[in-house]
Amino acid sequence: MQQDKSLLYEFKKGLWQDIPPFRLLLGLCPALAVSNSAINGLSMGLATLFVLFTSNIVVSLIRRTISAKVRIPAYVVVIATLVTVTDIFLAAVFPAISKALGPYIPLIVANCIILGRAEAFAQKNALLPTAMDTLGIGIGFTMSLTLMGTIREVLGFGSVFGMQLLGSWFEPWIVMILPAGAFLVLGGLVALVSWISSRKAARARAAETAAS
Amino acid sequence: MNGVKKMLLNLIIVGALSGAVLSGVFTKAEPLIKANKEKELREAIFMVLPEAKDFKVVEKTVGQQKLIVYKGIDAGGLPVGVAFKADGNGFSANIGLMVGLDLDYLRLKGIEVLEQLETPGLGDRIRDESFKDQFKGLETRPRIEYIKYRKPERPNQIQAITGATISSEAVIKNINRAVEQVVANFPREEMMKAEEGPRQAAPATEGQDAAR
Amino acid sequence: MDQKTTNTTPGTAVGKPSVREAAAEAPAAAARLIVSSSPHFMADESIPKIMHTVVAALMPAAAASIYFFGWRALLLIVFCIASCLATEYAFQRIRRQPVKIHDGSAVITGMLLAMTLPAGFPLFGAFLGSFFAIGVGKQLFGGLGYNIFNPALLGRAFLMATYPVLTTTWVEPRTVEKAVDAVTAATPIGLWKFEGNMDFNLLDMFLGNTAGSLGETSALAIIIGGLYLRYKGYINWKLPLGYLGTIAAVSAVFWLVNPARYPDPLFHLFAGGAMLGAWFMVTDMVTSPTTSLGQWIFVIAAGVMAVVIRIFGGLPEGVMYSILFMNAFVPLLNKHTRPRVFGMVKSGKG
Prior knowledge:
The complex is a heterotrimer.
Chain A lengths: L6 H6 L7 H5 L3 H6 L4 H25 L8 H23 L1 H7 L10 H9 L6 H31 L1 E2 L2 E2 L14 H33 L1
Antiparallel strand pairs in A: 1-2
Helix pairs in contact in A: 4-5, 4-7, 4-8, 5-6, 5-7
Chain B lengths: L1 H47 L5 E9 L2 E9 L5 E11 L4 E8 L6 E8 L13 H4 L12 E3 L9 E3 L5 H21 L2 H5 L10 H9 L1
Parallel strand pairs in B: 6-7
Antiparallel strand pairs in B: 1-2, 2-3, 3-4, 4-5
Chain C lengths: L18 H6 L1 H7 L13 H24 L1 H24 L10 H11 L7 H14 L14 H12 L7 E2 L12 E2 L2 H8 L6 H6 L11 H14 L5 H20 L7 H6 L3 H8 L10 H21 L6 H9 L2 H7 L14
Antiparallel strand pairs in C: 1-2
């Protein structure tokens, strides 16, 4: 396992095994705060993916030149720069999204996934594995936020990506747009993901015993 | 000593590079961001003064306060009404409104909600057309009032949103306060004066200058 | 699965002497087996019995709600009970546990939930509330005895956040003359809170002749049920009277300071869910403290909070949140207010 960490493995682990909000329980602040609609979840996920990917590429590139004692401040400067670039870009090109996400774009700086990946992975690995790792984690994060946003939007507004899905018979669950709904959906999904993986593990164990 | 030098050099280089990137991005993005804000303002003004084709900014300093009204003018340069912002506390946070006042200085022409963080499903129904439409033609003297559960009886009354009395009341309070301020500080005669027609070629430029 | 002792709250688990230690110090070990008040001395057989008594105690309030709001009230009560039972059955089957819907606890949850809803509440909403109450409020915590929060109140809180308009759209009782058709109306407490209306009829509020949720209107019917429970010995007088007493005392302070603005204590006792909460929710055996000191802290804090929310909060009614909030402290209260047994040395901190 240690040896054959292929590039594909680095990419795939972020999609299920280490999917940030549900398995690592990282990045919960944006997952709770800006998952009230599918489009918000998706755009927040993509913004985070961009910062995660670019900042970790930079970290991986400078990993040998940066003195170990000042690496954290250096990484934070890199991350903060890229977050500010994202913030300015969104405000200039997608003002509506920028307004909807509000302070949560600048707060990507404090997203522990990013510094976490930089410390745990990018500073020890070459460019290509780092790229695969952050793409996997970032896409996993984006999918998670989009999923949460979709669930909350369907129940809270009866729509998906702004398109009305449920008819007028549906009485929207206001709670799903409120912070309480974020906690309910997150808790439900964490439980679901753990349940599925424990079932998988149990089945794998059963197969092993049957084989031996 | 060498270690300290290296650390300093590391940080200086990282900081300088990030500064360069940021200033570059910002110079490119700033005009776009300004244009977005400008567009938003224009749209809000034209929403509350439907006949207006352009507007002139009138500024006054009263005591410490700087008051701004937007004088809406039609294609021939004749005034059609004044628009102004009305901010104040709602149930959760600031409610920012754009209010359009008829030149008779008595009736409203319309309102638009620019900014609000009221409870989804309750207070945020102040954005509903059915609520905002009640302000079209509403009399502002004596002060606007709300009434509950029933259809309004007097020309200065609106029906409050069921379950969101506090938000409805906040909207009314904001409007009342702002209307009084405008009526007291911007004499009607001043606003009745005709202006040059909008310069068809570059209406955006005019608005832009004005907003500064 | 043996659930005989499911009602033991974590706080009442006495220290863990090893077997050897226990054998060596038999007297001391025996002294550690403190049996405090309810719930864990209950034998399994008595759970249905208690639950059925509580159901009987709710009957006067149910009858009053049908008298005041008509058959729609009965439909709502029956539907909530059925939904709670169905949810309980489904969860116990899925989790492959013994099905125990006959123990009556889900019936109580359904009845209490219905009691907190307005008579015109739609049935899909009632089902959602029942499902949340039993599914999330009880079964996800591990079933009867493990739940931290009162399930019915949790269901109501969920509905309050989910359908804020529907849960506060009340109808006038049939008995009020002016109501030709059932039109929406405000509760006395809502009238006071949002319109400064201080003109209320305390007798009507006591009897239940006002707009409101099914079980919060008639204080009289709830008191009858509560006294029956007390007579049967299933509730501790401290809990309801402590809660109501605190509400009365705190509201009296405001009333004495400014009687023109704050209603008198009787209003606070008869309005909203104070009576229902005091007799049937504060007294919930699973979600209230087991020690005497803990119970005092619980009811006084909840009572203060209820009045504070009513007077200063954005919502007119604070009973539900006051009880739910204090429910969260019950394990802590049980842990830190356990009486020290005579002769025992206080064990090390932590």
